[in-house]
Amino acid sequence: MILGMAGSSVVRGIRGYGSLVAAPGASAVILWGLVARVPIGMTGLGLVLLVRGTGGSYADAGIITAANGIAIAVAAPVGGRLVDRHRPPSILLAYAAANCGSIVLLLLLAWDGAPVTALAAAAALVGATFPPIGPTIRKLWPRLVTSQDLRQAAFAFEATIQEIIFLTGPLLVGLITALAGWGAGMAGVAILTGTGVLGFVLTDAVAAVSAPDPSEHADRHPLAALAPPGIRRMVAFSVGFGLTFGAVEVAMPAFAEGHGGRALGAVALAAWSAGSLVGGLLAAGYTGHDPHRRLRVTSAAFAAVLVLPLIAGSIETMAAAMFLAGLPIAPSFAITYGLVEDASVPGTQAEVFGWLSMAVVAGYAAGTATGGILITHSGTDASISLGMLGAATAAAVAWRRV
User: Fold this and answer.
1) Which whole-number Å values give the CA distances from 75 to 62, 63, 82, 211, 399, in the listed order?
2) Could you give the CA distance from residue 193 to residue 33 in angstroms, rounded to a whole number?
């Protein structure tokens, strides 16, 4: 019976996505938005392959990718704020030009054998200038779809597409690098970013967005976007989920090392993403309209199902456990996006989505760093337990009374 209900929800989710794509102007936004966002999933591995291809160590690669990730997190609210206060096409095109130029600089420095500090600075510039496509699209959806069900499908799609990006991005950059050499992956990032942003800003939906009234932001505090208590709760919630992502992700290769080989950790992580993808379909097909209650249920479920990886004894059972552990992820973020859109101060939605991105990345960084230490001193289960703590903290935030 439960399987039948889940199956019918997946069918409704597929239909919901179909209705979303059929909405006027939505298909072009989805297509070009995906092209412009795939580089997010390409950059991390692209930087590692670039550093290794020019003779750098994995330690060097770690420093450079960390600089890129920190810059992305810190700059996310800034990009969102600019989108809120100006016409998105002009902001996105300026970011795309700066991002492509930064990648060219990085490639030239790598070609010239520049020191790690110079490469890290260039990688940080690449991260800081990545176009704020995600916040722009999430702000745009309420303009494109007006019904509650389609809006719910849109935010479920936004949560799901993150998994698609991080599944396809590494595969694409690895293929490009294998075919054309160490610098080709990052060159591909620049090409896709520029092409995707250009196609995105030329869509009718984006081109029609007018510039906001300057007086709307004239007297606002610099942190006005974080003023609503509901927004601060969602930021704290996102930190908890990010902590879980980092702690569990770093634990999978360590677990796999004792069960057939470190590379098999990718199998468990792919299963985690697959679970989230299915969860996104379930979220798109669910017709309930009490988002606070739904978030409490999904976040509590996320904390509970993370017990399963603790009892896995093989890669096969770990993959199954991780698939189940992934099911609540996309639904939780789909609900979060809707709550944020409702609670935001008018004219600050894109900035708030930037804050959420920053919160997830900050939590992820803390999870990977602390999880790595725990694995070294106490084993894999300690890092997974840290992930459970992060999920439980997020659930506690969600269960607080509004």
Assistant:
1) 20, 18, 11, 22, 30
2) 10
CB 113, CB 54: distance < 8 Å: yes
Token pair of 378, please? 């106490």
Sequence spans of domains, the chain: 8-210, 224-402
132: its two tokens: 């704020």
Kindly state the helix (H) or strand (E) to which residue 33 belongs, with its residue range.
helix 26-53
Longest dimension (CA), the chain: 63
**pLDDT of 122 strictly over 90:** yes
How crowded is the C-beta side of 317, counted as CA atoms within 13 Å?
Answer: 10
* CA–CA distance, 349 with 136 (Å, rounded to integer): 9
Residue 228 Ramachandran class (φ > 0 left, ψ -120 to 50 alpha, else beta): beta
Q: Which of 297, 38, 279, 11 is nearest to 176 (CA)?
A: 38
User: What pLDDT score does 22 carry?
Assistant: 84
Domain 8-210 has CATH 3.40.50.2000: no
Nearest to 241, CA basis, from 309, 325, 137: 325
Q: Which residue has the tokens 């199902």?
A: 305
- Supply the pTM of this predicted model: 0.81
Helix (H) or strand (E) holding 165: helix 148-180
Distance, in Å, from the CA atom of 222 to the CA atom of 233, rounded to the nearest integer, reads: 19
pLDDT in tens, 178-197: 888 888 999 999 999 999 99
pLDDT band at 2 (very low <50, low <70, confident <90, very high): very low
> Would 8-210 and 224-402 be classified into the same CATH topology?
yes
Q: What are phi and psi of 308, to 5 degrees?
A: -60, -45
Q: Which fold has domain 224-402?
A: Growth Hormone; Chain: A; (1.20.1250)
